[in-house]
Automatic annotation (TrEMBL):
<protein>
    <submittedName>
        <fullName>MurR/RpiR family transcriptional regulator</fullName>
    </submittedName>
</protein>
<dbReference type="GO" id="GO:0003700">
    <property type="term" value="F:DNA-binding transcription factor activity"/>
</dbReference>
<dbReference type="InterPro" id="IPR047640">
    <property type="entry name" value="RpiR-like"/>
</dbReference>
<dbReference type="InterPro" id="IPR035472">
    <property type="entry name" value="RpiR-like_SIS"/>
</dbReference>
<dbReference type="GO" id="GO:0003677">
    <property type="term" value="F:DNA binding"/>
</dbReference>
<dbReference type="InterPro" id="IPR036388">
    <property type="entry name" value="WH-like_DNA-bd_sf"/>
</dbReference>
<dbReference type="InterPro" id="IPR046348">
    <property type="entry name" value="SIS_dom_sf"/>
</dbReference>
<dbReference type="InterPro" id="IPR000281">
    <property type="entry name" value="HTH_RpiR"/>
</dbReference>
<dbReference type="Pfam" id="PF01418">
    <property type="entry name" value="HTH_6"/>
</dbReference>
<feature type="domain" description="HTH rpiR-type">
    <location>
        <begin position="6"/>
        <end position="82"/>
    </location>
</feature>
<dbReference type="InterPro" id="IPR009057">
    <property type="entry name" value="Homeodomain-like_sf"/>
</dbReference>
<dbReference type="GO" id="GO:0097367">
    <property type="term" value="F:carbohydrate derivative binding"/>
</dbReference>
<dbReference type="GO" id="GO:1901135">
    <property type="term" value="P:carbohydrate derivative metabolic process"/>
</dbReference>
Length: 245
């Protein structure tokens, strides 16, 4: 059996940086009907998700599970998680919303909006699963402003490859939880040396970080830690506030 102190959601969160796009799609399929999927044989599940049995088994190993039997157990557990909300969650959410609004009201974003309107191409690069959700949200908001965007995969190699083709007047958003990934920051510095007209925008958690330091525009989101109880263990999880345009 795998590590009994970790539930399925925690395993996925910790491995998100090494999961391929196809593996993420498998996980989405697994969690969308966790209880139903926990009752299926490996053969039936592979048919339902349109993937090979070996692909599911490899995913089990990557998540640190002993095999398909443990995956079924974890899916059943995930479908019946007993949520224990933070008693201060509502107050904390209200406080963070107020603080976020104050943060944006205190800033003069005129040049930022001008750069968005004049940008020839806008790229959104995210560093993980949750960041990809924020990138998708930002992309939709920019679409409403009449701007098309390009969502880049989270792989560092993709950023390196794309960095050769950025043009003057382009804008690159980088969405990172910590903002202190040295490999990403160093790559952005290299890109900046090639094209000093590229506008860099960062979106990170609140606090000073390397990514914000090298960006033309830095935005921050605050988080709330809440806990849910599963099999006797308490697991913290972040809640991200949406960027206010």
């Amino acid at each position: 059996m795998g590590d009994g102190n970790m539930n399925l959601q925690t395993r996925i969160y910790e491995k998100q940086g090494v999961l391929s796009e196809s593996e993420k799609e498998i996980i989405q399929g697994l969690l969308s009907s966790a209880k139903e999927n926990s009752q299926l044989s490996l053969k039936d599940l592979s048919k339902k998700l349109y993937v090979s049995e070996s692909a599911i088994f490899r995913l089990c190993k990557k998540l640190g599970l002993s095999g398909y039997s443990e995956l079924r157990f974890e899916l059943l557990a995930a479908s019946s998680v007993n949520h224990q909300p933070n008693n201060n969650f509502i107050k904390e959410m209200a406080d963070l919303t107020t603080n976020t609004i104050k943060q944006f009201e205190a800033r003069n974003l005129t040049n930022f909006y001008i750069d968005i309107q004049t940008a020839k191409n806008i790229y959104l690069y995210s560093t993980g699963w949750q960041q990809e959700l924020l990138a998708s949200y930002i992309s939709k908001e920019l679409f409403l402003l009449g701007k098309q965007t390009v969502l880049l995969p989270s792989a560092l190699d993709e950023l390196k490859m794309r960095g050769q083709f950025f043009n003057k007047g382009d804008m690159l958003w980088t969405i990172s939880y910590s903002g202190n990934n040295s490999a990403i920051v160093n790559e952005l510095k290299k890109i900046r040396l090639i094209d000093d007209k590229l506008k860099l925008v960062s979106l990170t958690k609140m606090g000073s970080n390397d990514l914000a330091t090298i960006s033309d525009y830095s935005f921050f989101f605050q988080t709330i830690d809440f806990s849910y109880q599963n099999n006797g263990g308490v697991i913290p999880g972040p809640v991200s506030l949406r960027l206010i345009f």
